[in-house]
Give the backbone structure.
Amino acid sequence: MPKVTETILEINLSHLEHNYRILRSKIDPKTKFLAVVKAFGYGSDAVIIAKKLEELGTDYLAVAYVQEGVQLRKAGVKIPILVLHPQPINFEALLKNKLEPSLYSKHVLKHFLALAEKKGLKEYPVHLKFNTGLNRLGFLEDDIPLINDLFNQTNNLKASWIFSHLAASEDKNENAFTIEQIETFESIATKLDLQLKNATFKHLLNTSGILNYSTYQYDMVRSGIGLYGFGNHPDFDDELKPIATLKTIISQIHTIEPGKTVGYNRAFKSKAQTKTATLPIGHADGIGRQYGNGTTYVTVNNQKAYIIGNVCMDMIMIDITDINCQEGDEVIIFGKNPTADSFASNANTISYELLTGISQRVKRIFVPY
Ligand SMILES: *Cc1c(COP(=O)(O)O)cnc(C)c1O
Protein backbone atom coordinates (compact mmCIF):
# COMPACT_ATOMS: atom_id res chain seq x y z
CA MET A 1 0.00 0.00 0.00
CA PRO A 2 1.42 3.45 -0.88
CA LYS A 3 2.86 5.51 1.94
CA VAL A 4 0.37 7.94 3.46
CA THR A 5 1.53 11.56 3.22
CA GLU A 6 -1.58 13.50 4.28
CA THR A 7 -5.07 12.90 5.63
CA ILE A 8 -7.00 10.54 3.34
CA LEU A 9 -10.14 8.47 3.41
CA GLU A 10 -9.26 5.21 1.75
CA ILE A 11 -12.21 3.41 0.17
CA ASN A 12 -11.84 -0.26 -0.53
CA LEU A 13 -14.04 -1.30 -3.44
CA SER A 14 -13.41 -5.01 -3.02
CA HIS A 15 -14.81 -4.73 0.50
CA LEU A 16 -17.87 -3.05 -1.01
CA GLU A 17 -18.25 -6.00 -3.35
CA HIS A 18 -17.82 -8.44 -0.47
CA ASN A 19 -20.51 -6.68 1.59
CA TYR A 20 -22.86 -6.55 -1.38
CA ARG A 21 -22.50 -10.30 -1.93
CA ILE A 22 -22.99 -11.09 1.77
CA LEU A 23 -26.15 -8.99 1.96
CA ARG A 24 -27.50 -10.44 -1.27
CA SER A 25 -26.87 -13.95 0.08
CA LYS A 26 -29.27 -13.19 2.95
CA ILE A 27 -32.21 -12.65 0.61
CA ASP A 28 -33.98 -14.54 -2.13
CA PRO A 29 -32.32 -14.19 -5.56
CA LYS A 30 -35.62 -12.87 -6.90
CA THR A 31 -35.78 -10.04 -4.38
CA LYS A 32 -34.53 -6.75 -5.78
CA PHE A 33 -31.68 -4.98 -4.03
CA LEU A 34 -31.73 -1.22 -3.51
CA ALA A 35 -28.46 0.34 -2.39
CA VAL A 36 -28.70 3.51 -0.34
CA VAL A 37 -25.99 5.95 -1.44
CA LYS A 38 -27.30 9.14 0.19
CA ALA A 39 -24.98 11.62 1.88
CA PHE A 40 -22.04 10.97 -0.47
CA GLY A 41 -22.41 7.21 -0.12
CA TYR A 42 -22.35 7.42 3.68
CA GLY A 43 -19.42 9.79 3.51
CA SER A 44 -17.37 7.88 0.93
CA ASP A 45 -18.21 8.95 -2.65
CA ALA A 46 -21.70 8.48 -4.07
CA VAL A 47 -20.68 8.35 -7.74
CA ILE A 48 -17.92 5.77 -7.42
CA ILE A 49 -19.94 3.63 -5.04
CA ALA A 50 -23.06 3.85 -7.23
CA LYS A 51 -21.14 2.94 -10.38
CA LYS A 52 -19.50 -0.03 -8.71
CA LEU A 53 -22.85 -1.22 -7.35
CA GLU A 54 -24.49 -0.77 -10.74
CA GLU A 55 -21.74 -2.90 -12.28
CA LEU A 56 -22.33 -5.57 -9.59
CA GLY A 57 -25.99 -5.84 -10.54
CA THR A 58 -27.74 -3.66 -7.98
CA ASP A 59 -31.34 -3.08 -9.10
CA TYR A 60 -32.03 0.28 -7.55
CA LEU A 61 -30.32 3.16 -5.79
CA ALA A 62 -31.68 5.61 -3.24
CA VAL A 63 -30.61 9.08 -2.23
CA ALA A 64 -32.20 11.48 0.24
CA TYR A 65 -32.49 14.59 -1.93
CA VAL A 66 -32.99 15.40 -5.59
CA GLN A 67 -29.59 17.04 -6.08
CA GLU A 68 -27.89 13.84 -4.97
CA GLY A 69 -29.76 11.94 -7.67
CA VAL A 70 -28.95 14.58 -10.30
CA GLN A 71 -25.27 14.12 -9.52
CA LEU A 72 -25.54 10.38 -10.15
CA ARG A 73 -27.36 10.87 -13.45
CA LYS A 74 -24.72 13.41 -14.55
CA ALA A 75 -22.09 10.77 -13.88
CA GLY A 76 -23.94 8.35 -16.15
CA VAL A 77 -25.71 6.10 -13.65
CA LYS A 78 -28.56 4.37 -15.49
CA ILE A 79 -30.43 2.22 -12.96
CA PRO A 80 -33.58 3.53 -11.22
CA ILE A 81 -32.97 6.02 -8.42
CA LEU A 82 -35.43 6.57 -5.60
CA VAL A 83 -35.36 9.98 -3.89
CA LEU A 84 -36.39 9.36 -0.29
CA HIS A 85 -37.14 12.88 0.82
CA PRO A 86 -37.77 15.23 -2.11
CA GLN A 87 -39.22 18.72 -1.81
CA PRO A 88 -41.71 20.11 -4.38
CA ILE A 89 -39.28 22.88 -5.36
CA ASN A 90 -37.06 20.21 -6.91
CA PHE A 91 -39.71 18.16 -8.74
CA GLU A 92 -38.82 19.62 -12.15
CA ALA A 93 -35.21 18.56 -11.73
CA LEU A 94 -36.38 15.20 -10.47
CA LEU A 95 -38.40 14.58 -13.64
CA LYS A 96 -35.70 15.87 -15.93
CA ASN A 97 -33.32 13.33 -14.45
CA LYS A 98 -35.77 10.40 -14.40
CA LEU A 99 -35.61 10.07 -10.63
CA GLU A 100 -38.44 8.34 -8.76
CA PRO A 101 -39.94 10.28 -5.87
CA SER A 102 -41.02 9.01 -2.52
CA LEU A 103 -44.41 10.67 -2.01
CA TYR A 104 -44.93 10.87 1.72
CA SER A 105 -47.68 13.41 2.39
CA LYS A 106 -50.84 14.79 0.84
CA HIS A 107 -49.05 18.08 0.26
CA VAL A 108 -46.23 16.44 -1.66
CA LEU A 109 -48.54 14.09 -3.55
CA LYS A 110 -50.80 16.94 -4.71
CA HIS A 111 -47.83 18.99 -5.90
CA PHE A 112 -46.37 16.07 -7.80
CA LEU A 113 -49.70 15.10 -9.33
CA ALA A 114 -50.32 18.69 -10.48
CA LEU A 115 -46.94 18.77 -12.19
CA ALA A 116 -47.48 15.33 -13.72
CA GLU A 117 -50.79 16.51 -15.21
CA LYS A 118 -49.27 19.72 -16.49
CA LYS A 119 -46.47 17.79 -18.19
CA GLY A 120 -48.79 15.08 -19.47
CA LEU A 121 -46.69 12.31 -17.92
CA LYS A 122 -47.75 8.74 -18.53
CA GLU A 123 -47.75 6.36 -15.55
CA TYR A 124 -44.68 7.92 -14.01
CA PRO A 125 -43.42 5.53 -11.32
CA VAL A 126 -43.64 6.73 -7.73
CA HIS A 127 -43.08 5.15 -4.32
CA LEU A 128 -45.73 5.79 -1.68
CA LYS A 129 -44.23 6.04 1.77
CA PHE A 130 -46.26 4.94 4.77
CA ASN A 131 -45.62 5.79 8.39
CA THR A 132 -46.01 2.61 10.42
CA GLY A 133 -44.51 3.86 13.68
CA LEU A 134 -41.28 5.72 13.05
CA ASN A 135 -43.34 8.91 12.96
CA ARG A 136 -40.97 10.72 10.68
CA LEU A 137 -42.38 10.70 7.13
CA GLY A 138 -45.27 8.96 5.47
CA PHE A 139 -48.98 8.60 4.91
CA LEU A 140 -51.14 6.93 7.51
CA GLU A 141 -53.54 4.05 6.98
CA ASP A 142 -56.37 6.62 7.18
CA ASP A 143 -55.08 8.32 4.04
CA ILE A 144 -55.75 5.23 1.91
CA PRO A 145 -59.19 6.29 0.59
CA LEU A 146 -57.75 9.60 -0.63
CA ILE A 147 -54.75 7.86 -2.21
CA ASN A 148 -56.97 5.30 -3.91
CA ASP A 149 -59.20 8.06 -5.27
CA LEU A 150 -56.32 10.09 -6.63
CA PHE A 151 -54.54 7.15 -8.23
CA ASN A 152 -57.67 5.65 -9.70
CA GLN A 153 -58.48 8.95 -11.41
CA THR A 154 -55.09 9.58 -12.99
CA ASN A 155 -52.93 7.82 -15.51
CA ASN A 156 -50.20 10.42 -15.11
CA LEU A 157 -48.78 8.54 -12.14
CA LYS A 158 -48.32 4.93 -11.24
CA ALA A 159 -48.03 3.78 -7.63
CA SER A 160 -45.37 1.26 -8.54
CA TRP A 161 -44.11 0.73 -5.04
CA ILE A 162 -45.23 1.20 -1.47
CA PHE A 163 -42.78 1.23 1.36
CA SER A 164 -42.21 1.93 5.01
CA HIS A 165 -39.23 2.16 7.36
CA LEU A 166 -38.61 0.24 10.58
CA ALA A 167 -37.76 2.17 13.73
CA ALA A 168 -35.72 -0.45 15.60
CA SER A 169 -34.88 -3.35 13.30
CA GLU A 170 -31.45 -3.71 14.96
CA ASP A 171 -32.94 -4.17 18.44
CA LYS A 172 -34.30 -7.59 19.39
CA ASN A 173 -35.86 -6.07 22.53
CA GLU A 174 -38.15 -4.11 20.24
CA ASN A 175 -39.27 -7.21 18.35
CA ALA A 176 -42.93 -6.78 19.33
CA PHE A 177 -42.92 -3.21 18.05
CA THR A 178 -41.24 -4.22 14.80
CA ILE A 179 -43.81 -6.96 14.23
CA GLU A 180 -46.55 -4.38 14.83
CA GLN A 181 -44.99 -2.15 12.19
CA ILE A 182 -44.86 -5.08 9.77
CA GLU A 183 -48.51 -5.94 10.43
CA THR A 184 -49.56 -2.34 9.86
CA PHE A 185 -47.58 -2.32 6.61
CA GLU A 186 -49.26 -5.52 5.43
CA SER A 187 -52.68 -4.21 6.29
CA ILE A 188 -51.99 -1.04 4.29
CA ALA A 189 -50.68 -3.07 1.38
CA THR A 190 -53.78 -5.25 1.35
CA LYS A 191 -56.12 -2.28 1.36
CA LEU A 192 -54.23 -0.60 -1.46
CA ASP A 193 -53.93 -3.74 -3.52
CA LEU A 194 -57.66 -4.30 -3.33
CA GLN A 195 -58.43 -0.88 -4.67
CA LEU A 196 -55.59 0.48 -6.77
CA LYS A 197 -55.76 -0.40 -10.43
CA ASN A 198 -52.03 -1.06 -10.64
CA ALA A 199 -50.39 -3.79 -8.61
CA THR A 200 -47.88 -2.28 -6.26
CA PHE A 201 -44.64 -3.83 -5.15
CA LYS A 202 -43.35 -3.49 -1.63
CA HIS A 203 -40.11 -2.70 0.18
CA LEU A 204 -39.54 -2.38 3.91
CA LEU A 205 -36.21 -3.68 5.22
CA ASN A 206 -33.05 -1.67 5.84
CA THR A 207 -29.72 -3.41 6.62
CA SER A 208 -30.68 -4.56 10.12
CA GLY A 209 -34.06 -5.56 8.76
CA ILE A 210 -32.35 -7.81 6.19
CA LEU A 211 -30.22 -9.35 8.92
CA ASN A 212 -32.97 -9.81 11.51
CA TYR A 213 -36.29 -9.96 9.64
CA SER A 214 -35.52 -11.39 6.21
CA THR A 215 -38.95 -13.08 6.07
CA TYR A 216 -40.35 -9.64 5.29
CA GLN A 217 -38.11 -8.84 2.35
CA TYR A 218 -41.12 -8.59 -0.04
CA ASP A 219 -40.09 -7.43 -3.52
CA MET A 220 -37.05 -5.35 -2.62
CA VAL A 221 -34.79 -4.48 0.32
CA ARG A 222 -32.93 -1.22 1.01
CA SER A 223 -29.43 -1.45 2.37
CA GLY A 224 -27.09 1.35 3.33
CA ILE A 225 -24.80 0.80 6.31
CA GLY A 226 -24.27 -2.90 5.57
CA LEU A 227 -22.72 -2.07 2.21
CA TYR A 228 -20.28 0.20 3.99
CA GLY A 229 -19.37 -2.61 6.37
CA PHE A 230 -21.48 -2.36 9.52
CA GLY A 231 -24.26 -4.65 10.65
CA ASN A 232 -25.26 -2.93 13.89
CA HIS A 233 -24.43 -6.14 15.76
CA PRO A 234 -21.10 -7.84 16.52
CA ASP A 235 -22.23 -11.08 14.80
CA PHE A 236 -22.89 -9.32 11.53
CA ASP A 237 -19.97 -6.92 11.82
CA ASP A 238 -17.70 -9.98 11.66
CA GLU A 239 -19.13 -10.97 8.29
CA LEU A 240 -18.88 -7.51 6.77
CA LYS A 241 -15.79 -5.46 5.97
CA PRO A 242 -15.64 -1.70 6.57
CA ILE A 243 -14.91 -0.04 3.25
CA ALA A 244 -13.51 3.20 4.67
CA THR A 245 -10.22 3.76 6.49
CA LEU A 246 -9.43 7.27 7.67
CA LYS A 247 -5.68 7.73 7.74
CA THR A 248 -3.42 10.59 8.56
CA ILE A 249 0.19 11.22 9.58
CA ILE A 250 2.08 12.73 12.48
CA SER A 251 2.85 16.37 11.67
CA GLN A 252 4.89 17.16 14.75
CA ILE A 253 5.94 15.54 18.03
CA HIS A 254 6.25 17.47 21.32
CA THR A 255 7.52 16.62 24.76
CA ILE A 256 5.26 18.23 27.36
CA GLU A 257 6.76 18.75 30.80
CA PRO A 258 4.65 18.09 33.92
CA GLY A 259 2.24 20.94 34.68
CA LYS A 260 2.13 22.24 31.10
CA THR A 261 -1.02 22.25 29.01
CA VAL A 262 -1.94 21.24 25.46
CA GLY A 263 -4.38 22.93 23.09
CA TYR A 264 -7.17 25.48 23.32
CA ASN A 265 -8.62 26.34 26.72
CA ARG A 266 -5.63 24.47 28.17
CA ALA A 267 -7.97 21.48 28.38
CA PHE A 268 -5.18 18.90 28.76
CA LYS A 269 -2.89 19.34 31.77
CA SER A 270 0.10 17.08 31.90
CA LYS A 271 0.72 15.26 35.19
CA ALA A 272 3.92 13.59 34.10
CA GLN A 273 6.20 14.16 31.15
CA THR A 274 4.06 13.38 28.09
CA LYS A 275 4.95 12.86 24.46
CA THR A 276 2.28 14.20 22.09
CA ALA A 277 1.76 14.10 18.35
CA THR A 278 -0.16 16.71 16.39
CA LEU A 279 -2.24 15.37 13.47
CA PRO A 280 -3.53 17.30 10.45
CA ILE A 281 -7.21 16.55 10.99
CA GLY A 282 -9.83 18.33 13.08
CA HIS A 283 -13.48 19.09 13.53
CA ALA A 284 -13.63 20.72 10.08
CA ASP A 285 -12.78 17.30 8.69
CA GLY A 286 -15.51 15.60 10.68
CA ILE A 287 -13.72 14.63 13.86
CA GLY A 288 -15.99 16.55 16.22
CA ARG A 289 -15.15 17.94 19.62
CA GLN A 290 -16.93 15.04 21.32
CA TYR A 291 -13.96 12.83 20.37
CA GLY A 292 -11.49 14.95 22.33
CA ASN A 293 -10.31 14.96 25.92
CA GLY A 294 -9.54 11.27 26.21
CA THR A 295 -12.90 9.93 25.01
CA THR A 296 -11.48 7.96 22.14
CA TYR A 297 -8.27 6.72 20.61
CA VAL A 298 -6.60 6.32 17.25
CA THR A 299 -3.79 3.89 16.49
CA VAL A 300 -0.15 4.48 15.70
CA ASN A 301 1.75 1.34 14.74
CA ASN A 302 -1.30 -0.57 15.96
CA GLN A 303 -1.02 0.91 19.47
CA LYS A 304 -3.71 3.02 21.11
CA ALA A 305 -3.10 6.76 21.29
CA TYR A 306 -5.84 8.77 23.00
CA ILE A 307 -6.95 12.14 21.68
CA ILE A 308 -6.02 14.68 24.35
CA GLY A 309 -7.32 18.20 24.91
CA ASN A 310 -9.91 19.87 22.73
CA VAL A 311 -10.23 18.93 19.09
CA CYS A 312 -9.23 21.98 17.00
CA MET A 313 -10.65 22.91 13.61
CA ASP A 314 -7.69 21.51 11.68
CA MET A 315 -5.75 19.49 14.22
CA ILE A 316 -5.93 16.98 17.01
CA MET A 317 -3.28 16.08 19.52
CA ILE A 318 -2.73 12.52 20.71
CA ASP A 319 -0.78 10.97 23.55
CA ILE A 320 2.10 8.86 22.19
CA THR A 321 4.11 8.68 25.41
CA ASP A 322 4.55 4.91 25.21
CA ILE A 323 4.65 4.56 21.45
CA ASN A 324 7.76 4.32 19.36
CA CYS A 325 7.02 6.58 16.38
CA GLN A 326 8.30 9.52 14.38
CA GLU A 327 7.07 12.57 12.55
CA GLY A 328 5.62 11.46 9.22
CA ASP A 329 4.42 8.10 10.55
CA GLU A 330 0.99 6.83 9.61
CA VAL A 331 -1.96 7.14 12.03
CA ILE A 332 -5.25 5.24 11.69
CA ILE A 333 -8.19 7.32 12.89
CA PHE A 334 -10.61 4.50 12.12
CA GLY A 335 -10.65 1.46 9.87
CA LYS A 336 -9.72 -1.99 11.12
CA ASN A 337 -8.54 -0.75 14.51
CA PRO A 338 -10.35 1.13 15.84
CA THR A 339 -13.43 0.45 13.72
CA ALA A 340 -15.61 3.44 12.89
CA ASP A 341 -18.24 1.79 15.05
CA SER A 342 -16.04 1.64 18.16
CA PHE A 343 -14.51 5.07 17.52
CA ALA A 344 -18.02 6.51 17.34
CA SER A 345 -19.44 4.62 20.28
CA ASN A 346 -16.63 5.81 22.56
CA ALA A 347 -18.07 9.28 22.06
CA ASN A 348 -21.71 8.16 22.32
CA THR A 349 -22.53 8.35 18.67
CA ILE A 350 -22.91 5.85 15.82
CA SER A 351 -20.91 4.88 12.74
CA TYR A 352 -23.55 6.50 10.50
CA GLU A 353 -22.84 9.94 11.98
CA LEU A 354 -19.08 9.56 12.00
CA LEU A 355 -18.90 8.32 8.39
CA THR A 356 -21.29 10.84 6.87
CA GLY A 357 -19.57 13.65 8.76
CA ILE A 358 -16.16 13.20 7.10
CA SER A 359 -15.99 16.48 5.25
CA GLN A 360 -15.31 17.02 1.58
CA ARG A 361 -11.93 18.50 2.50
CA VAL A 362 -10.59 15.00 3.11
CA LYS A 363 -9.19 13.45 -0.03
CA ARG A 364 -10.85 10.18 -1.07
CA ILE A 365 -8.57 7.46 -2.41
CA PHE A 366 -10.03 4.35 -4.01
CA VAL A 367 -8.30 1.02 -3.84
CA PRO A 368 -9.46 -2.03 -5.75
CA TYR A 369 -7.95 -4.57 -3.35
C1 LIG B 1 -31.08 5.67 5.16
C2 LIG B 1 -32.25 4.79 4.90
C3 LIG B 1 -32.08 3.41 4.67
C4 LIG B 1 -30.76 2.69 4.86
O1 LIG B 1 -30.67 2.23 6.19
P1 LIG B 1 -29.40 1.39 6.70
O2 LIG B 1 -29.67 1.17 8.15
O3 LIG B 1 -28.21 2.25 6.46
O4 LIG B 1 -29.38 0.14 5.91
C5 LIG B 1 -33.18 2.66 4.28
N1 LIG B 1 -34.39 3.24 4.17
C6 LIG B 1 -34.61 4.55 4.41
C7 LIG B 1 -35.98 5.10 4.28
C8 LIG B 1 -33.55 5.36 4.80
O5 LIG B 1 -33.77 6.67 5.06
Summary: The longest strand covers residues 157-164.
